[in-house]
Every structure is written in C-alpha cells, then in structure tokens.
Amino acid sequence: MSIRYDSPSTVAPPVSNYSHVAVADLGSAKLLHLAGQVALDKAGTLIGAGDITQQTEQIFANIGAILAAHNATMHHVVKMTYYYTDMHHRSAVAAVRDRYLPQPGPPSTAVAVSSLALPEWLLEIDVVAVVTG
Prior knowledge:
6 strands; 32% strand; 21% helix
C-alpha cells in the first residue's frame, strides 16, 4: 500500500499546510479521503456569501473536481460528513445534494458546529470515495 497527498489545480490551493485529498493505493482499489470542502472557487474566492444554496453548489463542484482529478465521480463516494453552522440549512443542502449523488445516496453524518474556520462559511463537507480498477 502507498499513500500520497494531492491538491488538484482545479480547486483553490489549501490555505495552510494540508492537502485536499489523501490517496491510499490498495493495489486493486484506491481509497480517497477528501479534506472538508467549503464554498471557495478555484481562485479562493467565497461563493454565495450568506446563501447556503450557492455555497452548497460550490462545495459539490469542488468535490466533483477533486474526484475527477482522480478518475472518480460522485458514484464512487462511500461516505460523507456534513458540518453545519445552522441545522436549519439541511433541507436546502439536501436539495442540492440530491442533484449530484446517485439515489439512494451514500451513508452520511450531519454535525452541528458553532463555527467553521472562517465565519462566512456556512457548511463544510468531507468525503470518502473508493475507485477500483
């Protein structure tokens, strides 16, 4: 098994010493652990200040871009964790999520947090995916 860390150029560069994805090569499969994604575009600009739907759209775009950089799609996602600053946003997030993920969707966990790293971030999502072949 080998592990490597990557930050594809299709998403904003990490703001500190971390990577967007850890890739564990297991031989017949690759296990992808994506860092929590927030609503920053490729240039690092916040998308959707104060708007949970726009932020969620950007987050799923980021997840899709990172997966694509590793020959994966949303169909490869096996686990998601949602970090909400306001649990009342769950239905708006679900409406966006349901357009991106196969149904039924993968297992997920919703966590209420008092804040994220920056106060303007309303949601953060991390993902685990498995790619075979």
